[in-house]
Design brief:
Layout (H helix, E strand, L loop, with lengths): L1 H31 L29 H5 L14 H20 L5 H21 L4 H17 L3 H26 L6 H14 L3 H24 L9 H13 L6
Bound molecules: zinc ion.
Amino acid sequence: MNSDIGFLLAAYFFTLLLGLAIGSFLNVLIYRVPRGLSIVWPPSHCPVCGHRLAWKDNIPLLSYLLLRGKCRYCGARISPRYPLVEAANALLYLGLAWRFGFQRLLVFYWALASLILALSVIDLEHHRLPDPLTLALGIIGFLYQLSRHQWMYGLLGGILGLLLGGLIYLLATWVYGPNAFGLGDVKYLAAIGVWGGPFAVPIILFLASLFGTLGGLIIAWRRRTLRVGIPFGPFLSGAFLLTILLPQGIM
Ligand SMILES: [Zn+2]
């Protein structure tokens, strides 16, 4: 029995390190994809002084703590977004390993978590959901459904997401004008539908609208105005994650 516990501890430790490392890569995606930059070239550098980063400047979490959130070369402040994304990705990886156990499909859940984390942070910062990332989410979702012999279910979920998202897009544009619910949100909902299947789509939409309304009201109250433009993507992500992580998962 002791070796089982040892194996499990090692597996969780590996999960933590992998989550941090992939989280570090997500920071590259989050910075470069919305700006249309290559994700492989040039190598990591400080966005302020342009100095290339050494391996010791690139260790997830640790480098940020050791450098006290400043660039080693020019002293510019490093956004706390970097360690936060790394920590969030590692926590998601650990949570999913705990929820589903160390099984074949876990890699898919990890890929899913990383993509929706990157999409949410980009949506918060830039108010858009880049096509390459939503497309990757949809394709990996379809591979996930294929590997569990449920591709028809995934396809139906994707179509329903597209239809419902399109309907909301038309209604929102008609009632609130453009940018209330973007085309990026429609594609994101379709990709989520591929993962969750047709039954998950209305549930996720309902939860996301509920969270979005609450979030909007809180922000409106704090800013003392009803005119608040908040991206919908992070609420979709939150609702989606909730449906995956709940014990009575609908996926
Ligand atoms: Zn610098």
